[in-house]
Records
---
Amino acid sequence: MKRSKLINFILAGTFLVFVALSFLLEYDKGVQSGKEFFKIIIEMLKLLPPAFILIGLFEVWVSRETVITHLGEEGGFKAYLLALLLAGITIGGLYVAFPISQSLYKKGASLKVIFAYLGFAGVFRIPMNVFEISCLGLPFTMTRLMVTIPMFLLIGIVMGHVLKKKSFSIKE
């Protein structure tokens, strides 16, 4: 077993032992921590299987040529708009955005568009924005979006150019 895997195993085991002892000894902070951890695990188990099924269907139904045409190097500004739209409807945040990015990369999407999509997925999910508007108001949300969307667009373009110069590729 590699050292990093061993460390992760030890940390996970330590946490589980801590939670178990907290339940036995009725240590409130440990009990609450355990309940929150398992609540998140249950949410992920509800969300991830349907998301992965949809990603699998995307892999089968959407051709490589379509992705290259619309999200590839020659996609232009339209590619970033499509990435923004895709990020807006991505449910599950970055848990789902990373596998979608991998699928887009394998189908020939530009690194610039993929990096922009990942940034957009963190800040432009429609359900998150609706909730934010209801809590913090429309002016705050619009100001945040007017700052973050161009910022992630620029970051995506710069990162794509830098990594393309370095002949970056993701290993299978």
---
Amino acid sequence: MMKLNKWVPFELHTHTIHSDGKLSLIELAEYIKRLGLNGFALTDHNTNSGFNEIKETESKSGISIIRGIELTTFFGHMLVLGINHYVDWRDLTTSNLISRIKEVHSEDGIVGIAHPFRPGSPMCTGCYWKYAIDNWSEIDYLEVWSRTFPSNKRDNLRAFRLWTDLLNQGYKITAVSGLDLHYYESKNDPIASTYIKNSGNELRNGEKIIESLRNGSVIVSMGPLLTFNIFSINQNMEWCIGDIVYLLNDSVRLGIKINIDLSVKTNHWEIEYDSLKVKLNSNLGYLNENKIKNRSGELIYELDIPRKLLWMRAELFGIMYGTHVMIAFTNPIYFKFKI
């Protein structure tokens, strides 16, 4: 029997009147609820002054709030999540970024790069990432989709390629979406959600949420929830998104289970169901693709796993609002072969 994981939709990049946003924290929480989300990260620019309002806002709204800051500099914007204190940005330079990252990690926080290829000055000061990263294992996550209808935007396509290139180099970095929310969205464009693995009754447990983000137990979707599992043929073992599969043989045959859950956030997206296809992507390129042929949205089949495989993720494509786009993707399942 496959073990079931609950996937909870979050928005990981928001701003309030404590920086340059237009909404109070309670207004933001109520808006997040209307978007069909269970929680969000408060990431005001260079301030944590909104932290004092979090407990009361969670109680009133029923929405879970992750403590965070967007360190906003001339050389890039870095998101810091899971911390309880102010992180100073004023002395950050292109040469000392790593010391600030280590400070965050020492307190069990995580760091991510926001919208790395968004146009910079004068359109957006520091939005384009210019810091040199010598060791990408220090970066916990990458915002590969930003703003509304994100999958067909040029800067997001570049961020998605960067993430894929890093996976191919052997790094384990989580990919997320971020609306960069400052006010009520007037557009009717679809909004991507970052679904975070939430085993048991842990929605308000910030440490568990941060752990899932750090481990890559994350799915990103503008529409249906795309889940992806791998299992041994005798079904004695199974692996979920973010897991590492350790294998002994040169190659092995494993089971693949993919599910498209059409019941999530149903009032917030429109797709042409008959257009849906799921592709398995990897460091070896696309391994296969399957059309979704039944309303259960479930695919189960077997696949030979070659020794050179480093990672594998599922990607959902289809027609959304009249445009053929990538609708959703999972973070990878990783592979390590013993020598």
---
Amino acid sequence: MKKFLLHILQFGLLLTIAYPLLLLLWGAVFPQFLKPNLLFVQGGTGHMHTRMEEVKHTGEVDILFLGSSHAYRGFDTRLFEAEGYRVFNLGSSSQSPLQTQVLLNRYLNQLHPKHVIYEVYPGAMELDGVESAVDVISNDTLDTYAWNMLWDIPHIKVANTFLYVWLLDLWGGRKTYQEAPYKPEEKDTYISGGYVQKKAIPYPYPYLPKRNWGVHTDQLRAFEAILSDLEARGISVTLVYAPITSTAYQSYLNQEVYDKIFHQLGDFQNFNEKLPLVDSLHFYDAHHLNQEGVEIFNRALLDSLKKSALYPRSCLEQ
């Protein structure tokens, strides 16, 4: 029995040493299709590396934008700055409330926003959070908040990416990375303040099957906790359902469920029911506005802010 336990202990020690080394080699050498459970995505498809580098050097803002790709591709920081706001867009790809909590824990005190515009795409509420967790871990600081997220999302992809990034950071492996402001393969340009502008591409206008939105209880619980924390800090919040194509919007059979949830939790505006957007003219895919669509949407949002106390007095006096 003692010999068996000794073998188990030896195997455990060997595994503790060998697994991180093999993971580091695996991540550095092998192509992605051979490492499905390791998703290190420095930069990613949303300029997350550049956004995280910029936010570290950003001071107080009037408005902080939160949410998924509908946020960082939907709120053009230039349009809000032209109206007198200091803003930052802290959106990220597939950002679920679990990742929003992490980013707010890191940067809310630094940014000290007067107001938060939170993009509340219902799809973010049904996610497990794995994709966004990997994005945040790959491009931002490994700290206690990242560790807590690892426990909240106990998935092999998140754990492997966390360990891989930790090993990279021991040797400064992420410090040399430089992300180009324009990515031709994605036709994306990073705009200061966190916005990503997509070069005009034709929209394929596909058929979308009917379905219902789901809900992940952990995400809804985190979402409610975020709103409670912002309220406790005296930060006002507008919940915004950014426009998606009418084809996509009408494909969901239970939109009213989330409309009810968001109305009950705060000041909610569903811009899918407010703007005369055309799928083939104002979108580049089923869920994202092109630049023309973004400008129509943002000006409508700005008009709503003008009617509230959130609009800068200096702009009203111009």
---
Amino acid sequence: HHPDLVLINASLNWSQECGDTAKYEEVLLDVVKTIKKELDTEIILMTPNIEIPGMFQNPLSTLDERVEVIRKIAAEEDVCLADTYRVWKAYEAQGFPTDVLLANGMNHPAVAGHEVYAIVLMKLLRKQG
């Protein structure tokens, strides 16, 4: 496969078995570097939607920590960043009931939650185009 664009959105399901934040950074950086080395493609790193604290939290790595890793790698590796998490946190700060944007009430976005991703991506693509 020879994609023109690779979207990477991987942070919500980083369980305790996967390791701590340092391990997450190592894995994500390896993925980005491998794609840059092996493919002639654009990369967009995406921050996730928010999650509602629950039984699936990783005590070794918070979502906020992983979001900061995504932002850091995007800057250091000079790849585009679609910072969806910033939008979700802004909704939350304004008192919007973000749990209604989550289909399972925890971390999987409902249709409106997916629209947030689409809007962030489209705005980014318009800036780049």
